[in-house]
Amino acid sequence: MVVGAATFTTEDRVETQTAHKNQHFKEFTLNYNNILLDPEQGNWWMQFGSGKVLGYWPASLFSYLTDSASMIQWGGEVVNSASDGQHTTTQMGSGHFPEEGFGKASYFRNVQVVDGSNSLRAPKDVETFTEQPNCYDVQTGKNGGWGSYIYYGGPGRNPNCP
């Protein structure tokens, strides 16, 4: 039996099913993505949906994650070689900034962690970081319908991100 000493559960919707600037986006949902610690073997397992296992990371890969995790990170990355002196035009998420909100920006919602008593709860002390906020950004929040959520993304190169 796999028991989660540290896990995250998200519902990831990349874009809504509305139209924006004549572009139609399909919505997709990945329900209940989990990373779970097997306390017997010490392996970290990844599963999604209703118990569909994707695979695991062997305990031998980790020296500090034998019992639990002290930090969980969610994130994205765009590599920019800036060989021509300009930022890349590669979009993150839907290509819209977090402040554009629902219907445009990409998001994770219902973000939860499993605490030491094996109970789901909202993450505490969530901090955000971005190196290029004029190119890509991130915002967090909480509300009754979505629980803890994270909006993220951006267009890459734009007039404010040369």
UniProtKB/TrEMBL annotation:
Residues 1-162 form the Neprosin PEP catalytic domain. This is Neprosin PEP catalytic domain-containing protein. It holds the Pfam family Neprosin. The lineage of its organism: Eukaryota, Viridiplantae, Streptophyta, Embryophyta, Tracheophyta. Coiled coil: none annotated.
